[in-house]
Amino acid sequence: MLDLRAKPFYLSDEDIRWVEDTRASLTLEEKLGQLFFPIGYSPNEQYLQYEILNRNPGGLMFRTGKTEELFSAYTYLQEHAKVPMFLAANLEAGGDGIVEEGTAFGKQLQAAATGDPEQAYRLGKVSCSEAQAVGCNYAFAPVVDIDMDYHNPITNVRTYGSDKEMVKACGLAYMRGAKECGSAVSVKHFPGDGVDEVDQHILTSVNSLSCEEWDATYGDVYRTLIEADALTVMVGHIAMPAYQKKFNPNHPDKLMPASLSPELLKNLLREQLGFNGMIITDATPMVGFLCAMDREKSVPYCIEAGCDMILFNKDYQEDLDFMKKGYEEGILSKERLDEAVTRILAAKAALRLHIKRAEGTLAPKRENLSVIGCEQHKAWAKECADKAVTLVKDTQKLLPISPQKHKRVLFEIMGKCPSEERVAKRFIEDMEREGFEMIRYEEEVFDFSKPMRFETVTEFRSKYDLVIYIGNVENASNKTTSRLNWHAPYGAGNNIPWFVEVVPTLFISLQNPYHLLDVPMVKTYINAYSNHDLMIDTVVEKITGKSAFTGKNPVDPFCGKDYLAY
Q1: Cβ distance 150 to 138 under 8 Å?
Q2: What is the pLDDT of residues 340-366, one digit of tens each?
Q3: What's the CATH code, domain 389-565?
Q4: Which residues are catalytic?
């Protein structure tokens, strides 16, 4: 039985009456509409009315945008929606997850590297308070995946690391910060990413742990956060054969993602873990969802299997049509539809959205915009950065560096990412301000069909006092690896670090903490976990000796390979 008085809803009789009355007032089409959580593409009021509100979605998410545009859009949506809406953002790293002017606090792995879960609390507080200022009431966070496989290209700095106790502590702390802001959280990505080395955006990934192994790791994390009143859980397109076979011995060998698995949704999440809140899928245009079943069937079936909301669409209207057809054909039952709508409305009631509408406080207030990028949040971000930067190794005793000893610096940024020029510009400016002569590496052209003259060792030594690499390989969907790639073949040019025994060489990773796997020859290596400007400034302070390194490795940067430490 669905108990709306129990955790995580804790609804009063009056709240329950609103849920029941609202559900009863909805037409079939409006009920089906509540199941959807599309992505928004324009703040234009005509678009919001005719492309979004006329389809009665339960929620909406915009990508990061400008404060004024999102403030206006969210105001319009809440003032004109028949049912108060969930308005969400990926609030994993700060207020910049929703507005461009927001505070870039730092990736989750950065918070974990401080060794202090209080930094995860501040991450939740900063992210959700700045999001609430423009009307966003739902955080697609915290990520409670455990980074078990260093090859995984998508978990990485988005996690709180490989220690499940730190993941659990930081997840709880983030939730506390979000709750103080009145925001819902979406604990993700159930049943747990990070075990294999693939990305569910481009195929169904696999959590290959045994039932016992899962219970002791991911299961412990989810059970703890559920007990602490997590309002929603986001389910990934991740198969988990051990539990799927345990609950259903006849389960086919074909990989079936959790988002389409009643064994994982109903048997494991609902019954075994006791989760009573709302279940939302991860984005359904991911191939991990699409390749499992014909979408005409999977859209209604994912609700029948146990999800309550479906995130994003390949085509919004087509998905609505698929859902209605699936209902008419019996793929989605009336009982399961009503249960899903009830949980959606109950989650909204738990956020007091119905009360805020009655009080006239549902839409955001302009005076609250001052919290975005405020000095307190910047100070917290600075403190987190200062505590997080981790000196992984310095076996050549290079640090601190100084312009007196290391004046001429050959500098290269690794990773062809949109942030490359911003990161390079900030780092060069900071270093030049300290008195260093920064010489940026220019990509060399190689034609081995013709005689070539390479720079000699003597020439290289005479030109540079230090080489610094910045690893800026951002993890992103649809990337199969987050490794370093070199355009120079073997030792032909100065791109690849052939010269570590000739000139002191320093590698600073602003993203992937596992780059030592590709540069084991570099004797001084730093992990910084985030590439925002404040972190770059902090790294320069550290390498020039203005402040001490205090960060702790939240993952094994040596990837289980002892030789990487030397």
Answers
A1: no
A2: 999 999 999 999 999 999 999 999 999
A3: 3.40.50.1700
A4: 282
H, E, C per residue of 494-514: CCCCCCCCCCCEEEEECCCCC
- What local confidence, expressed as pLDDT, does residue 450 receive? 81
Cβ contact 107:384 at 8 Å: no
Q: Determine the Cα–Cα distance for residues 525 and 219; give it in Å rounded to an integer.
A: 34
CA torsion sign for 297, 300, 302, 304 is negative
* Secondary structure of 28-91 in HEC code, one letter for each residue: HHHHHHHCEECEECCCCHHHHHHHHHHHCCCEEEECCECHHHHHHHHHHHHHHCCCCCEEEECC
Joined tokens for residue 225? 């956060």
**Whether residue 445 has pLDDT greater than 90:** no
Residue of 67, 137, 116, 69 whose CA lies nearest to 96: 67
The closest of 82, 79, 76 to 57, measured between CA atoms, is 82
The total number of residues shown for the chain amounts to 566
Spans of all domains in the chain: 13-360, 389-565
Which architecture characterizes domain 13-360 according to CATH? Answer: Alpha-Beta Barrel (3.20)
Q: What is the dihedral of CA 187, 191, 192, 196, to 10 degrees?
A: -160
Q: What is the mean pLDDT of residues 404-416?
A: 96
What pTM did the predictor assign?
0.97
Q: Which amino acid is at 501?
A: E
Rg (CA), the chain: 25
Q: Give the SS3 label for residue 81.
A: coil
Q: Residues 398, 401, 404, CA angle at the centre, nearest 5°? A: 120
For residues 255, 260, 261 and 266, what is the CA-based torsion angle, rounded to 10 degrees? Answer: 170
> What count of other Cβ atoms lies within 10 Å of the Cβ of residue 225?
23
- The sign of the CA dihedral 189, 192, 194, 198 is negative
Say whether 389-565 and 13-360 share the same fold.
Answer: no
Beta-sheet pairing, 86-89 with 278-283 = unpaired
Which residue is it, tokens 């009456």? 17
Which tokens hold the place of 218? Answer: 């991911």
